[in-house]
Please model this.
Amino acid sequence: MAVQGRKRSGKNVVSLLLASTILGYVGVMAVSADAEAQQSGSVASATVGFNIPAQPLGKALNSFIKSTGWQIGYSSALVDGKQSAIVSGKLTPETALRTLLSGTGIEIRMTGPKTASLLAGGQAAVNADGTILLEAIQVQSKSGQSVLGTSSAADTGTTTISGGQLNGRTGGSGDANSVLRNLANVQYQNEINTDAGETDQSVIDLKPKEVSISGARVYENNFILNGMEINNVAGSVDQFRSDSFLVTSNNFEHYQLFGLHSQTVFVPTDFVASTTVIDSNASARYGNFQGGVILYDLEKPSTDRWRASVTTDYTTSEWAKYNLLTPTGLNPSNVARNDYIRRRSSVSVSGPVTDNIAVIGQYSTQSAITHKDKQKKYVGNERTAEESESDFYRLQAVAETDLGDFTLEGIYNTYDQEWESALWRDTGMILGKDGLTTKLQHDYGFEDFSIGGVAFNNVKLKSVLSYNKSNFFNDGGENEARLYIQNVFRSGAIVWNAREISDWCQSQPGMSTATSCIDGGWGYKEQGQEQWSLSEELTGDLLLGSFRLGAEYTSTEAHRRRPEEYTYHTVSTVIFNSPTLAGFICNGADNCSSEQYSSRKTVYGAYDISTRLNQFNFYSEVDQTWEWLNVRAGLRASYDDYMKNFEVAPRVVATLTPFEDFSISAGFNRYYNATNLAYALRERIPRTTPWTRNHDPLTGAVNGWVEGTTLTPYENHASDLKTPYNDEITFGLSGKEPLLDGDWRIRFMDRRSKDQFATESLSSTVNTLTNSGHGAYQSITGEYSKDLDTANIEALDALSFNTSITWARNEVSNKTYFEDNLEDNHIYYNNQSYSEAGFSVVTGNMDIPLRLQAGFASSWFDNRLNVDVSANYNFAFRGVRDTGDTIDLYGLEHAIYEDHDFSPTVTVDLSTSYEIYKNEDRGLMLNMKIGNLFNETGNVRTGVARPWSIGRTVWVGAKATF
Model:
């Protein structure tokens, strides 16, 4: 490749991450030195805040499990008809469990640091060796399935995925966002795509899947990784071109920054303990979104002993099923399949340093490689390789002291994806990213106290200081490129050949027109952000429930820059057109030789655009229960000095429980969009300056360059507008069904998008934003989740099942998005004109009207065999599709779209693993993951230029634990 080197602004960040973590760790050690000497318990004896009212024992145990993450084994007959005791305050989990069971006659047998079995008092049999013989029990744990809601009755829009379902939903990709697939109100499919063929870039693309939640755009979600926001506030969409431009166009684009993403850290599944999605009824503690909130909780440090694990996974195009999806089912151009090899591996080490300090260090790497053919006009350079790599580093230290609990964590992620131009000589580009996020967190629990006779219990203060820095870049090597003429055709025959470039540029075989070759690079561009954040949150028990108060301050500096100007020589004048001259006379002129010289160039000016903002957030919330009525009411207030708007977002959810295991809920919520600095960064990008020159027709002397008129800069004005927001109304029913005692819920959601940014194009370069955009999203969902009783099934240790059905409708006004551009492709549908970007949302923003999903997670043979399945069914629906015809409107060519009946589709992903060796805590497990098991092609189609679509994929791997 022509890329000279990776211009990472954060290339020393790994050293910074390690150094800062070590220094912080030393500081924590110093603070906790005295406390450690007095510490006699282990981390396993840490206290937890409880607020479990007296209720049926089975329901109380479920609340205990949700609060602690413990696994409790018991028979359903043991708890039927029994009532729990009240558990309130800051207690160790074991003490809380004993309090919960007081008066029931049930005894506890601890089977591990966070596992226990329940048995009837005095009824346990004892074997000759002294071991206790228990009756068949049911392990009550939410690991391995989809959990609906939380311990709060108001969280009716929350779903948590863990255990086997984490594996079953990824299809082997290793992308944590793939876990979100098929969840209610999460959309990721584009069934109307008529050019869905694989490319050399798509088969090595390791970036996370972009998803739409509750009808919002893919960059309007709030991703939170272990309590740290990892969102790209500098903008993940440009108004110039999409990433597909690199592989679908023969032109060039030097304004676009390719490879942008809505997340600044790409999360691998290797270390994810659970994923929580909030698609509605979000607590006031969450802001900066119009879609949903995604919480990734990573594995915690081991506190009882040192543990380690090593994983490796592999797949290849040889194991994949390729499908021809062209309209005719043929491959007229004999386009070869895109080959690839993808690898993934990880290492995790965790354990206690002292009785009260534990650490965890993790590393994950993913890589991919493919090959592509260069144009045959380039001598000796017919095939080239393209690679991508994503590396993830994590280090966390947790210390429990008398001064509170301290958590110090650093996560660093790098991503590189190579692109090699097939049309240029030896020109490539690295689409890269660096992302660093760190935090120092302090959790402190207060003694119970009273103010004015009002008791406050289990009061906790969480303080978090966080820092994150990210940088997306395109490293295209040299800042200059030039077009050369290799030959001249007349009447279908070559009449002139360039001699000076014949060692690397030759006539294109089979061509009857002039051959031109391009040599040089694409230059360097970058976009990044740096954030400091300080937050304080106070929680506790108050009156008949709980309260929450919080404040956040965030300082953000964002930049977009081209450090050096870029020059592209677009026209060459050759000596053949001046037959009276023996050759050109350069006299030291640049890009000039005796047989040809550059006569036109375009200069892209250097720029360094930066902007900053300060954002303040305050929120308060109470969650109170009066017998059969629960109300959670909250308010979130925000202000930033970029939009200069003071925003107040009410959050209210009321839940009625007229009888046991049945609830009715209703909510009203407002969500304001995150402050997006994309507009400020893009409104001052300079346009190009053309330069021309010629030569003396008598002497052949090349004259100097003459500057042309610089084009007007692109503009997008947003700072004086209102902040876009959604108003949401929800209704829901939930409970437990009597047959299998499974959790179910039925929900209706209506969101109205207001004051959305819309584009008013004043010229081809100036887009004035307004607040005239609007939209609506409605959905009805039914969900069910159950850990099934496997006590009577031989060899089956655990089985969980979940399913959901979702109907959704999305309506968005046209010309809504700032990335619309008069130079963009346009679409004509139902007598209206749309930009391509806007139309992709008008047609559903990847939303299928009616979807059904189901998932199974199972463990067999003493948990040695695990089989996890995830399935999705799209019902038939009526949508739109490109007809292939065009129409001219307002001087712009529009593709004509019309209604189309789409067929139903079903996709199934399978994940299996088997532990072939186990010796106490050591083991070796083999695994296989099959994505799209039955090779469902769906309704998408491909074009003749990219005719192949990948269906079924197979991954194999292994995991060793120590």
Remarks:
- DSSP finds nine helices and 54 strands in the chain.
- Residues 887 and 894 are 5 Å apart (CA to CA).
